[in-house]
Write a structure and sequence with these properties.
By secondary structure, the chain is an alpha+beta fold. The chain has helices at 3-26, 45-58, 110-114, 146-160, 168-179, 241-244; strands at residues 40-44, 66-73, 85-88, 93-96, 103-104, 118-124, 128-135, 143-145, 192-194, 199-206, 209-212, 247-249, 262-267.
Amino acid sequence: MGLRFYTFAFGVLLMHMSLHKEVVAQSTPQSVEVNHTRHPEERSYRALHGGRQLFESLQARVPGAVLRFRLIPLKPEVDLKQVRLRLAGETFETPIHITEDLRFELPNNDLALKEDAVILSNYSETDLRWLAEIKSPDLPENRLRLGELRVNCEVYVKTLRFREKNDITSLSKRALLAVLPNPCLFERSVIRFPAERPIFKMSLSHGGRHEQLPLRNLYGGRLHPISLFGPNELQNGWLELWWLDRDFAAPLGDQSWPDETLIEFEFMED
């Protein structure tokens, strides 16, 4: 899987982008108004439910970890205290509780599955981003387990497969998924995550082995030539410079580091 593999994947990506442009030209999607936001960010309840089911099936790999969904502001002007979510189906609507740190748990709702409900935000997709987050509650904010990030990645890919068919980001990613059924285990994949605070450096440790990760694993992957998923996607609005200092990639595909490996951050303010 060298240059030919990436050339093929890039060709498939371009093909999907071309098809998407034709679809957009032929049809105009309807917009839904939520609290005066013309194009709200929304997620399929069925997609997030599918991600939770996958997490539950993999929980033996990450004992003690919990799944929550995290909201990431993409612009400094987003008022964190005013972010709202609601679950809406054909016959019902109910608010979803958001914690002060912008996390929420997916409620159990059989009617939402039946009606193919969506979760709507009062901020647009250019203002707010959604991520699954799997972490052990006993770990401080500057530490993660590599196995939890691996499972987190698999949940992300699961929810991605449910995304809207006319979503250009999902189409391009699906093109790569066609040749990478599980990119989380592919050693040369770069899967990016957001930390809690701006990162100065990060390291891995397991047993007596310790390794500081290079700069190409930080700051939006600007120093890495290949990045399949994550914040360095222009079409997602993730390249807000104020957020890049929190971005990191861990070696998910490097099986020499077991799931119990600890990732430790040294934050810039420390």
